[in-house]
Request: fold
Amino acid sequence: MYAVLHSKNAKVGDVAATYAPIAQTCPVSCPLRNNGCYAQSGNVGFQVRRTERYSEGLNGDTVATMEGDEIADLATQAPAGHALRIHVSGDATSDFRARQMARGASVWPGKVWSYTHAWRDVQRTSWGRVSILASCENVEQGVAAKHRGYAAALVVAHHPPDGRAFLVRSGKPTEDSVVKVIPCPSQTRDVKCVDCRLCWDDARLLAQGACISFAAHGSSKKRTLNVIR
Reply:
């Protein structure tokens, strides 16, 4: 487990961030685990390997408890309004583990957001005030996540050239089968997360029937595309 008060990621901007080991915290069912996950390559991959060295021999519940403690401790140093990204790497695969994130987030002095592949198994309420988006590989999953109370983050092959939002109909016609997809402004218009803030309000996205899309990119792009096709 590793936490920083000021991220050096230019796309995100000045926010706090936590990194957790993938081995102990990510669901084995995630199709991107060891198969195109952005967190296992590049600079984030470096942090992942460091957290896995530090947490060797610990189980996922212990790691989650430590992460909740670290978030609460870091909150005492964070200025008012300072945002926190939980899990640049890692996840929470049980209600207990999500509640540890919620515990830390409850004392954080600004917005808190994250993404999870464990939305099928973890109740949305366990995340508390964290703006948590369900990581999905297709629109059908996004609709299923909505039924469980989650707004969705959808990985796609590419975004429209103009970067504008578009509508997609899932393969299963229902009253909410049409989903509004909003391409990530960081990818389409070079807008930092601290200026965009769409992912910081999952309740608003859910109410709008909207999801955020992220185009596959980086050194693992080919493997990611194989997963979503």
Remarks:
- The chain is about 35% helix and 20% strand.
- The mean pLDDT is 89.
- Residues 2-228 form one domain.
- The two ends are 33 Å apart (CA to CA).
